[in-house]
Amino acid sequence: DVQLVESGGGSVQTGGSLRLSCAASGDTSSYCMGWFRQTPENEREGVAAISVDDSITYYPDSIEGRFTISRDGAKNTLYLQMNNLKPEDTGMYYCAADRPVCGVGSAYDFTYFGQGTQVTVS
């Protein structure tokens, strides 16, 4: 079984940066992994995903090159570097693992989810 624990959220001003981490227990090396967020309006949006071999990353157009997803296999940790943050980036950010078709479509296609870390941009 896989457990995911996010950290690194917080409150920042517009234009600031945050780096989210997702520590995994259990073997995630064969999984597509990703990040999605739930907004205050309860909309759930995929913001990044990374393929099994880390060769392909996926982002929605709304991210506009501001976020970077990466994985450290040795530490079994997934990261999301977020730059030039905007108020509309506010939300609860979740790490997820194991999506049959890797990408930033429906968050519900992932098998495993963390508990989330809050990001607030003002």
What does this structure look like?
The chain contains no helices and 11 strands. Strands 2, 4, 5, 6, 9, 10 and 11 form a 7-stranded mixed beta sheet that branches. It has a 4-stranded antiparallel beta sheet with strand order 1-3-8-7, with no helix packed on it. 0% of the residues lie in helices and 47% in strands. The chain is globular and about 35 Å long. 33% of the residues are buried. It has strands at 3-7, 10-12, 18-25, 33-38, 44-50, 57-58, 67-72, 77-82, 91-97, 112-113, 117-121. The chain has 122 residues and is an all-beta fold.
Walk me through the topology.
Elements: E1 3-7, E2 10-12, E3 18-25, E4 33-38, E5 44-50, E6 57-58, E7 67-72, E8 77-82, E9 91-97, E10 112-113, E11 117-121
Parallel strand pairs: 2-11
Antiparallel strand pairs: 1-3, 3-8, 4-5, 4-9, 5-6, 7-8, 9-10, 9-11
Notable characteristics:
mainly beta; single chain; 0% helix; 7-stranded mixed sheet; 4-stranded antiparallel sheet; 11 strands; 122 residues; globular
Determine the number of helices (DSSP H or I, runs of at least 4 residues).
0
| Elements, N to C (H/E) | EEEEEEEEEEE
Distance linking N and C termini: 37 Å
Helix-strand makeup class? mainly beta
Helix content: under 10%
The main β sheet shows up as: 7 strands, mixed
Taken from the alpha-carbon principal axes, the silhouette is globular
Task: Tell me how many strands there are.
Answer: 11
What value does the average pLDDT take?
95
Strand content: over 45%
Q: Rg to the nearest angstrom? A: 13 Å
Low-confidence stretches: none
